[in-house]
Amino acid sequence: MKSLQKSLTLSVIALSSAAALAFGAEEAAPQENQCVTCHGNRDLWEKDTLHLLVTADDLAADVHWQKGIQCHDCHGGNPHTLELRQAHAIEDGFRKIDAPTDVPGFCGHCHSNAEYMQRFQPQTKTDQVDRFWSSVHGKHLKEKGGPDAATCTSCHPKHVMRPAADPLSALHPRQLSATCGACHREQFVNLRKGVHAKAGEKDERGAGTLLDCGKCHGTDAHGLVPVDEETSPVYLNHQVSICTSCHEKK
């Protein structure tokens, strides 16, 4: 127990210093946020609990962390204690995710709150959760559930989500095919084998990259409808116009 306490104490010092760099001097003192003390300690997590490991290095590039959003802003609870039950007390507003179907509501706690989102992006949309539940992914999540159904974190990796304009972001045009391909493996493999493997945005060397899935399937990722619905960009009757949006000259 003493060795664990010593380890935690050392982690507080190291992680607080890293968090201070991430937050900047004007933000709340990072040493007050004890979440990263435990969750950033690699000695505490393994196997089935490894997904609970979140280091300060992971968070440093996360768009939420960069904007000063701390652990308890999303997860609730008490960030000022190392006592397990107090930190995760439901009465202190701790928000649990017991099943994949809980994820959209968890993210929507902030992203569906227009007043709250005004603080970060005044023009941002706040209907993503409603659109998701009406989409092909949302319907599949309701009907099937389970780990294979898509949720917000399938496309927006938790704790390491970079701004969409970042070339390393899962949502950047250069990365989007791989993001979609994480679930749609067959389509991803076929895309890489086909003529569209180099039809996407050019990289720094001028070489073409994989075609962005949104070029065909549309940019409304949250409200993506099944391909057999008439409103889908790739519905049979729309395929000629979709293809000629790129191939018109030829």
Q: How does this model look, in words?
A:
With about 250 residues, this protein is mainly alpha-helical. Helices cover about 45% and strands about 0% of the residues. It has 15 helices and no strands. It is globular, with a radius of gyration of 21 Å. About 15% of the residues are buried. The model is unreliable at about 1-30 (pLDDT under 50).
Number of strands: 0
The radius of gyration over CA amounts to 21 Å
The major pleated sheet works out as: none
Helix and strand element order: HHHHHHHHHHHHHHH
> Which overall shape is indicated by the principal axes computed on the Cα atoms?
globular
Kindly report how far apart the N and C termini lie. Answer: 71 Å
- What is the strand content? under 5%
Whole-number mean pLDDT: 85
Helix content range: 40-55%
| DSSP summary: helix tally | 15
The secondary structure category is: mainly alpha
* Uncertain parts: 1-30
How would you summarize this macromolecular structure in one to three sentences?
The chain is mostly helical and 250 residues long. It is built from 15 helices and no strands. 44% of the residues lie in helices and 0% in strands.
Feature tags:
250 residues, 15 helices, mainly alpha, disordered N terminus, globular, 44% helix
Topology:
Layout: H1 2-23, H2 35-39, H3 56-60, H4 63-66, H5 71-75, H6 84-87, H7 103-111, H8 114-117, H9 128-134, H10 136-144, H11 152-155, H12 173-181, H13 185-193, H14 214-217, H15 239-247
Helix pairs in contact: 9-10, 12-13
